[in-house]
Design a protein that fits this description.
Elements: H1 10-24, H2 30-37, H3 41-48, H4 59-65, H5 70-84, H6 88-101, H7 104-118, H8 121-128, H9 138-143, H10 151-163, E1 167-169, E2 175-177, H11 186-210, H12 227-249, H13 270-273
Antiparallel strand pairs: 1-2
Helix pairs in contact: 2-3, 4-5, 5-6, 6-11, 7-11, 8-10
Amino acid sequence: MKPVFEYIDYRDFLREHYEEQKELHSFFSYRYFGNKVGLDPSYLLKVMLKTRHLAEKSIPKLTAFLKFNPNETEYFHTMVLFIKAKSQRESKLHFEKLLSIKNVKNKRLVEWQYEYFCTWYHPVIRSVLEYFDFKDDYTLLGQQLSPSISEKEARESVRLLEKLKLIERDSGGRYKLTDSAITTGSEWRSLAISTFQEQTIKLSQESIERHKRELRDISTITMNINEENFEEIRHRITEFRRSIIAYVGETTTPDRTYQLNMQFFPLTDIKSGKQ
């Protein structure tokens, strides 16, 4: 079985541990496992099915049964806190602690993936490299972004993209995009993407001051709707987003990189708004 450090969701670890032990030992059942760790067997099953969570008081007996060392115990405990987190701030705090506890051997790729999704300019640098040959002038590359980034940030961003195999040099020495994609668990990926969205929303606010009106399009609509309208508008936004992706996908000579944010959110309490 994989080391606990290779998991992000403690429930996946428990399920795979149970399946492995059941295969090795015919006596290993939910009842046996539950009794050993002080949990009702039916509740333990619900935890593995991701419909319930472990209580923190259950963790010491469970990690003792699993014969975890102190580092493994801390990692498992932090996984529980990460999955149970109720806010993005909590999630980010616990996920970054998971990274700090991980064994060096296992943590580098996840760190690189997390950094890519969590920092707004890494995807931008990758997009810029599709049409701009910076000829290894990292200061010039950083200046292509708005807001600009430093020479050091640009250099480290390119190195990160190389490590993730998202770019590579062609025979002429110019960077080109690869077809590689980052495939990761949904738990931390959604956290990183939420952080990226926060950053780009902030950039859209700054764009009002940074860019001339003719270089941007920022508009707002305040509307009164009902639940049926809400679902239909969400559907239309999805279709619009897909149509834009298809449209720009036909562009063969890009010369700039833009960010499109669509924000549609309530300004009143939904429950109290119902009559």
